[in-house]
Amino acid sequence: MTIKEANAIDMVSYLSVMGFVLAKSKGINYWYYSPFRQESEPSFKVNRHRNQWYDFGEGSGGNLLDFILRFENISIPEALKRLEQHKHLSAPAADDLPADPVIEILSVHAVSSPALIRYYQSRRIAMEIADHYLQEVRYKNGEKTYYALGFKNDVGGYELRAPYFKGSCSPKASTWIKNGAENLAVFEGFFDFLSYQTINQNQPVPLRDFLVLNSTSFFELQLPIMQAYKWVHLYLDNDKTGTRCTTSALQKFPGQFIDERCLYAGYKDLSDWHQHIGTAP
Fold first, then answer.
1. 92 assigned to some structural domain
2. pTM higher than 0.85
3. What CATH number has the domain bearing residue 220?
4. Which end of the chain is more exposed for a tag (fewer CB within 10 A), N or C?
5. 119-152 pLDDT, tens per residue?
């Protein structure tokens, strides 16, 4: 996929498929709560005619590729590869705007697809852990039917992963797993959480609650939950966003928040380290 082809994908449709809920729309302008921070009024606008976004809270904007590079913190080649699966979401003509396509969940059941089992095994996730936390989700995206590993959030939506797909279904939110502990472990994505569970599967570890953000855009929103714990162990990514969130928490709450990224220094995240234990980063 070329950059031109990527930016021809309808951004409103893409945001819907990725689980971002539309706050309001008026004509060709579609408004969302900013994915970059917590806010009470929607300030993130997509002009569907131009197929461009603008965040009034930051005074910045751009095209779809600009958004993905900022939100996902990935390279252009990675973004183009990820957008390949959404190329059917072509931008509509200004006078012929269709209804927003959304991921429609068809069924949810225990993981049984050999392809999905091979996928989580390739990520070195133990079967017992996968069986406990993951489900197989069959869904419709446009006119086609797909299946993916599903990790449920606190409001009924799912993070969806397959070998060549990363997405979510509305509503998008974090996942808080409560075990009655006074310590909390925070993860950016669910494969980091599953890696942690697999690593410690047969180890004597302290009792902890778990918070899977499912997006670092929820970090500030979830701070009140984190602050209620005696200690908060942060297992965020080794990138600019993970560093920003970690540094901010350590400065605001010294002694309460703990940066655990030394465990996987030199790797993108805990999942990446877990997949490559024993090999050079």
1. no
2. no
3. 3.40.1360.10
4. C
5. 999 999 999 999 999 999 999 877 889 999 999 9
